Amino acid sequence: MRDASGWIALAWALLTAGCETQHAGIIPPQSVLQQRARIVSSVVTAGGLTYVVDQIYTPLENNLAGITPGPRGKIWFTGDYALVGASSVRSDISEFLMPEYYGNATSIVEGPDQNLWVTLYPGAIGRLAANGHLTVFATGRKLGNNPSSITNGPDNSLWFLAYASSKYIARITLTGKLKDYRLPAGSNPQSLTFGGDGNLWFTDAGTNKIGRMSARGVVKEFSVPTPNAGLSGICQGPDGKLWFLEEGANKVGNMTAAGSFQEYDIPTSYSEPVAIVAGPDGALWFTEMAGSNIGRITTSGSIVELNVSGQSPRPYDIAVGSDKNVWFTESQSYGIMGRVDLHEVKDSDPIYSDISLSLGKVHPELGVSEKFPLSITVHNLAHHVVKGRYPNPIHLTTTNSKQAGLSETTITSSTSTVSVLFSGHYTDATISANANGGGSVDPVTLLPSTQPAKKLPAPGYGLGRGPKDSVWICLANGKIASYSMHGTLSVYRATTSFKEEGCSILEGPDENVWFTDYSNNRIGKMTPLGHVTFFSLGTNASPLRMALGSDGALWFTEFSVSKIGRLTTGGQLTTFNANSSPLDIVAGPDGNLWYNDDNGNIYKLSTMGKSSRVRTVYEMGSLWAAEHNLWFYTASGSYLEEMSTTGKILEKYTVPNGCLPFALTSGPKNSIWYVDAANDCVARMTLSGKFIVVPTYSRKENPQLIAGIVVGQNGDLWFTATGTWGLGWFDPATM
Q1: pTM reported for the whole predicted model
Q2: Is the peptide bond before 122 cis (omega within 30 degrees of 0)?
Q3: Considering only CA atoms, which of 105, 101, 122, 134 is closest in space to residue 26?
Q4: At a CB cut-off of 8 Å and minimum separation 6, what does 529 contact?
Q5: What is the pLDDT of residues 332-386, one digit of tens each?
Q6: What pLDDT, on a 0 to 100 scale, did the predictor assign at position 691?
Q7: What share of the chain is helix, strand, coil (3-state, %, to 5)?
Q8: Cβ(119)–Cβ(105) under 8 Å?
Q9: What are the CA-CA distances from residue 214 to residues 62, 154, 181, 186, 402 (Å)?
Q10: If DSSP states are collapsed to H, E and C, what string results for 430-497?
Q11: Contact 32, 47 (CB under 8 A)
């Protein structure tokens, strides 16, 4: 005999069959990045119960949005730039890289087919398998660009909200067929869920009503008692009622299927409640964006709030994980999510206030296997050291198990000893700790030695990537060194000397290495075996910077004679007049050459030699091309500015004190990487404008004078340290 849920599913399947559309595109399996999050915990007491509230700092820097439990017991979430990620209950983070042409991923849910279903901007529903295989179904012009609030229906299909000139509730089958239901004029639906009565229920901020849609698509709406409530999230409660949030009125409400309402004021004023979920403890849990709280309300209406501390927390979406804890995303916090441990902490258990890790040595020599003793100190809430057996074990992990030989290790007592075997030839590793007992943890990072990874025969004044997985360096003594990814250093005689003005060195289309010889007014070509040929430029040419043009020729600035030079790999030389002494030259994303002069002018130069001034910048520093646009530094105000190829300033970023751009490149993790010779630091800027200064190579007592930076074939960042005659590198994945 078929039960009630079976009849409901059958009714939906029959009644929603009919006129449907399908627009699908299959995309190859997506890349998966796996990293470990950093966890900072706090103990919060509310309503007579004690909870551990974790802030989980993922390695992802996107603003996070939707969250849901999913396959393999993981927590799945979405974010900006079409991010879909997953976290284990131990906070191992996996990132699935979506195609670049999608903007934000918003809501997410595990479908009845055990795949993840995601709403994507602009205008698509994605079906993501746990192995990263993605199928995309376009929603079409009628349903608009902003699908949201996707949820499971009783008919083995997915349902979601769609926004265009009209508002819709739409249905998509597991094979991608679409059917839509237009909502009444004035509707502005925010969230939807299926009730125990088999109907679909939704909040309608436009009409200030709770809507119900039957299997036939018939809509009936119930007016909320509070006017202009600003309705947001909705879910089915454990008491059979529909529970919803009133963002504008700062309330939590519920209603019966017959339309009887109750409302409860949230203690924190203007808290902006957004999302709500039924918890495993018989209560409802909700997020407060402005209040920076996670709220809990019992079915009798008693509300407590747990404050989320940390970096500008704005709790957004919320879900219950496979660990029976409450998980939530944080909007506008660059990859931070959170978790509330619902298991009450016993008063007899020492709760950890902090866990400190320390190594006897944190600067291993690259390529050398060494053991480092790791010390662990745990403090309870009274700030006393916890000795003997730990009631809540400490879990140690590393960001790179291949390079730092530390498998997942559990420390159960203060007498436990751990040693770390580091064999990182190309990468760093970060050791982290977490515990159910909470505790703030500062990870220990194994970094390359502050001595250069490879000693050079002389200071390096220029750096570039060359053939056969190598980097090439102009040395002050007139020699050129190459360093292969296999650790071989070769040195070749090139010229009399390279001056501190530096030399530009790069791989040409002929697989030879080309370089500027500023002092001797010539361009040099070196074969991979070290044979050198020079091309004279005449008296006082002073070639300074060089770039490879879209025409396959070498383009360079002749500083002293105010010219731009063009040299083919066959040796044909052409020069073009510049209005003033040109400094930097780069190959722009538009196929043109771009250069600046000593008067702060920026010029566009076609491969035919036609030059036009685009912009004048007061106190301009260097000019670079990166991430499809032009970049330059302005000393007045310490700005790093991004400019389009039309000359429009797209963004203006204030550079933090302590590290000002000197050499810049686009690199891994969709970031701008730069170095500063004056302050001896390496820094990274995300495309959202967040700066991260790398203190690894800051040696004020023995300045390195970092002179150049380049991305190697293996994705590492390489730089020259002139003060210590060194060549160094680090793995950007650990930052």
Answers
A1: 0.52
A2: yes
A3: 134
A4: none
A5: 767 889 999 876 544 444 467 777 777 665 555 544 556 677 788 887 766 678 8
A6: 74
A7: 5, 50, 45
A8: yes
A9: 37, 12, 11, 20, 55
A10: EEEEECCCCCEEECEEECCCCCCCEECCCCEEEEEEECCCEEEEEECCCEEEEEECCCCEEEEECCCC
A11: no
Provide the β-strand partners of residue 667.
671
pLDDT at 311: 67
Q: Please report where in the chains the tokens 């993840």 appear, as a residue.
A: 116
Q: How do residues 223-233 score in pLDDT, each as one tens digit?
A: 999 999 999 99
What number of other Cβ atoms are within 10 A of residue 636's Cβ?
Answer: 9
Strand ranges across the sheet with 273-278: 273-278, 284-288, 293-297, 303-307
Give the DSSP letter string of 105-137: EEEEEE-TTS-EEEEETTTEEEEE-TTS-EEEE
CA nearest neighbour of 156 among 20, 319, 8, 3: 8
Alpha-carbon separation of residue 377 from 52, 354, 414, 445 (angstroms): 20, 8, 7, 17
Strands (E), 58-208: 64-69, 75-79, 83-87, 92-96, 105-110, 116-120, 124-128, 134-138, 148-152, 158-163, 167-172, 177-182, 189-194, 200-204
Per the CB < 8 A criterion, the answer to whether 365 and 345 are in contact is no
pLDDT bracket for residue 607 (50, 70, 90): very high
Q: What angle do CA 156, 159, 162 make, to 5 degrees?
A: 160
In this structure, what token pair is assigned to residue 502? 């530096």
Pairing, β 429-434 against β 409-413: unpaired
pLDDT of 20 strictly over 60 = no
The DSSP 8-state label assigned to residue 657 in this structure reads T
Write out pLDDT tens, residues 103-114: 788 999 999 999
- Cβ neighbour number for residue 588 with a 10 Å cutoff: 20
Phi, psi angle pair for 585, to nearest 5° = -140, 135
Calpha distance 535→187 (Å, rounded): 72
Q: Are 325 and 337 in contact (CB under 8 A)?
A: no
| Structure tokens that stand for 299 in this block | 């079915």
Angle in degrees, CA 326, 332, 338, rounded to 5 = 20
Share of the chain above pLDDT 90, in %: 38
More confident of the two residues 720 and 534 = 534
Domains of the chain: 4-341 (2.130.10.10), 352-446 (2.60.40.10), 464-734 (2.130.10.10)
Euclidean distance between CA atoms 47 and 366, whole angstroms: 53
More confident residue, 154 or 8: 154
Q: What's the whole-number average pLDDT of the chain?
A: 81
Least confident range from 43-57, 114-128, 395-409, 604-618: namely 395-409
Residues contacting 207, CB < 8 A, separation 6+: 184, 186, 187, 188, 221
468 token code pair: 């056969």
Give the Cα separation of 21 and 19 in Å (integer).
7
Place of tokens 């969709």: 670
pLDDT in tens, 506-519: 999 998 999 999 98
